[in-house]
Structure formats: C-alpha cells, structure tokens
Amino acid sequence: MANVMEIYQLLPKTNCKECGKSTCMAFAVDLLARKVTADDCPPLVKEDKYKANYEKLSEMFSSVANVSETGLIVHAEKCTGCGNCVVACPVDVAADPHGAGSGKAPTTDKVIFKVVDGVVTANNVQECRRFGENKILCVACIDTCPTKAIEFV
Ligand code: SF4
Ligand code: SF4
Ligand code: SF4
Asked: Mutation test of ligand 1: which of 7, 10, 19 has the most ligand atoms closer than 8 Å to its C-beta?
C-alpha cells in the first residue's frame, strides 16, 4: 500500500480547502485512514488534468468498495503485493489456469485477485466461493496471506 507521501503526490497540492481540510496533506492522511475517498476532493474529480491521478487513487482504494458485497476486505495497508492470494484462490485458478493461476500476470478480467501497483485489488467478488447459494467456507486466500491482509466480515 502507498504511504501518505505517495498519496499526497497524487493530490492537486493546492490546499484549496474545498474538501473541508486545511491542507492536501491533511486530506492525504484521512484518505490513508479511509475517513474520506478520492471523490471527496472536488478538483480531483472535476478537473481533467487530475483525471489520471484520480483514477490511480480510486484504484488504490478500490478493495474497500467491495466490502459490502461479500464481506471480503483486503486491508491494503497490510498488503505487500506478494501475489500468494492470486494463486491460491480457486476462482482465479479456474478462470485463468495459465495466467494468474500459475503465478503469471492475469490473462482475463475474470479473476478475483489482481496485483495493481504493488497492492492487491479484489474484483468479481460475487464469484467468491463464500458467496451465493452454494457457498462453502473457503479460506484459501486468508490462509495464504503472510500479512493477514485478507479478512471476511
Ligand atoms: S479539495 Fe483537494 S486540492 Fe483542495 S485541499 Fe482538499 S485535497 Fe487539496
Ligand atoms: S475465499 Fe476462496 S474463493 Fe473467495 S476470494 Fe478467498 S480464495 Fe477466492
Ligand atoms: S497474499 Fe496478502 S500480502 Fe500477498 S498479495 Fe494477497 S493480500 Fe497482499
């Protein structure tokens, strides 16, 4: 996960206060603590010149958005990007046996775990085996994560 300086570098750095914070650095600290989202910085959302940074920040914190769907949380700040969960997840292996499932870059968007910029993101969480009608208590990703970054709530 990025540190506060890396997050700050992606903000407009104008200290315009439109977000209600006194500085962009204060906003970066709150963003890291998940108290705000990239959408809470109006210039970042509205101005074309910040579009790429907005997308990067949104992606960085995208795992949090998946919590409500299946209960899967990736604590991005604990993730080292090792990729163990990508290979361990049976859904990833089934969807992409020669790519993500064998430790290589994903060749399909159907995988659940994907390492982006050194941190894992959770996608297609509705495919998780703990979800839906025939759910089973799969713990493959939790067990394989060396930093306990994955949790189900
Ligand atoms: S709205 Fe954005 S640019 Fe303005 S102070 Fe807040 S974080 Fe910085
Ligand atoms: S619980 Fe199992 S199926 Fe669900 S994301 Fe983790 S490894 Fe994949
Ligand atoms: S196993 Fe844990 S540390 Fe490794 S990529 Fe997955 S969530 Fe991150």
From this structure: 19
Establish whether residue 16 lines the binding site of ligand 1, counting it when its CB lies within 6 angstroms of any ligand atom: yes
User: pLDDT tens across 123-148, in order?
Assistant: 888 899 988 777 888 999 999 999 99
Q: What top-level class would CATH report for the domain 65-152?
A: alpha beta
Span 20-53, pLDDT tens digits: 999 999 999 988 877 788 999 999 999 999 999 9
Considering the four listed CATH numbers 3.10.450.750, 1.10.15.40, 3.30.160.390, 2.40.110.10, the one that applies to the domain covering 4-60 is: 1.10.15.40
Alpha-helix residue ranges (DSSP H) falling in 33-79: 42-46, 51-60, 62-65, 67-70
Q: Given ligand 3 and candidates 123, 147, 151, which is best to mutate, with the most ligand atoms within 8 Å of its CB? A: 147
Backbone angles phi, psi at 115, to 5 degrees: -85, 120
